[in-house]
Amino acid sequence: MITELVVGFVALVATFVVYETLKVVIAQEISTRLGHLPFAILRAARRRLPEDLRQVAYDEEWMPELWAIIHRTEGLPITRFYRGVDFAISLFFAARSIAGDYEAGRKREVVVSIRVSDLFPGKTIIWEHDMRLALDRARSEFAESTDPRTRSDLQRRIELLQLHVDAFDSLPD
What we know:
Elements: H1 2-47, H2 51-72, H3 77-103, H4 128-144, H5 148-170
């Protein structure tokens, strides 16, 4: 009788250990796979671009921007997943339009099609002129701000906008 209780207890503990281990492994597997989803969507968006535009748009603009979004939401898995997928899906659906604008030679449209919802909630800036105005506005707000957190956010905004304004300047006419 005692042997049966000991065997039963050992079996119960072993079952619990296996269950908890599987739970952790499966959760990690799901988390890892979901973390790769924005990159898979972005790769699909890349395939919608002409070969000559892939280097500029995907490798030099979209991928670094996605990494920045992922990095800014470190430790917030749901927010990171949402923002990453939101960014990637917006580019997936805009890829053909971006390619058409690029091929039509419209330098003034954002060839890299950045989604600036993180910078200016509720607004997507699609014109170079708007980017330059946003950069000037962010610089002036930075100069007037005294709150360290606000200044930090504005500095990040300024750096990102400056990267995209520089990207415009490097585009062929």
